[in-house]
Amino acid sequence: MRPLGVQGAWLSETRAFADDRGEFQELYSGRSLRGVLGYEPGVAQANRSVSRCGVLRGVHFAQVPPGQAKYVSCLNGAVLDVVVDIRTGSPTYRSWEAVLLDGPYRSLYVEAGLGHSFMALTDDTVVVYLTSQAYDSGREHGVHPLDPDLGIAWPEHIEPILSEKDQRAPGIAEMERRGLLPTYDACVALHRSLREGEPA
Predict the structure, then answer these.
(1) Torsions phi, psi of 192, nearest 5?
(2) What's the pLDDT at 176?
(3) Residue 129 catalytic?
(4) Is 16 within 8 Å of 95 (Cβ atoms)?
(5) What's the whole-model pTM score?
(6) How many CA atoms lie within 13 A of 85 on its CB side?
(7) What is the pLDDT of residue 197?
(8) 18-63 per-position pLDDT tens digit
């Protein structure tokens, strides 16, 4: 588990054990996460998306508390996976970091309170992500992934394909004005309570 530049995001790198029958891989380890987080986030839901080249999903996040942490793996194809610090008051507010997920040996963990987005770089890209909380449409929000105030460097040679919902998403300045972004203090308090075993 390697921490990224955005506090609250980690890159997990694993390996497979192969023999003449095939191979075996531990895709997710709650124990490894506990080692870096101080708590095990648990898995409430497992999601799978299939995308053609250029599909751009996000920037998505859920209200805190309880928020929604994500453990993201690309099982086929490749994605440019981006974590965005949308926590007002954070030392790295509005910063982002991108990682290439191009196979099952690299996964991204995104703590609750951070924004998450990815672009499919190939056709038939399959992404599986485990979430700490079940999807709740009333608590789910988005920031426009092409917002110039974020300036995410998506691949220039690929035309982005957005859902209608993501096309309508406001920029980060508008979300901040509306008071819809998580605060850094609320996220710190949430994760402290999880480490101490208190209800979120």
Answers:
(1) -65, -40
(2) 98
(3) yes
(4) no
(5) 0.94
(6) 17
(7) 87
(8) 999 999 988 899 999 999 999 999 999 999 999 999 999 999 999 9
Residue pLDDT, tens place only, 95-106: 999 999 998 899
Beta strands in the chain (DSSP E): 2-3, 9-13, 16-19, 22-25, 45-51, 56-62, 70-76, 79-84, 96-101, 106-110, 115-120, 125-131, 140-142
d(CA 171, CA 28): 33
Closest to 11 (Cα-Cα) out of 81, 85, 68: 81
Q: Is the peptide bond before 65 cis (omega within 30 degrees of 0)?
A: yes
One of 109, 129, 144, 191 is an active-site residue; which one? 129
Closest CA to 165 of 14, 58, 50: 58
Q: CA-CA distance, 115 to 9, in Å (whole number)?
A: 10
The DSSP letter of residue 73 is: E
Catalytic residue flag (residue 60): yes
pLDDT tens track for 123-166 = 999 999 999 999 999 999 999 999 999 999 999 999 999 999 99
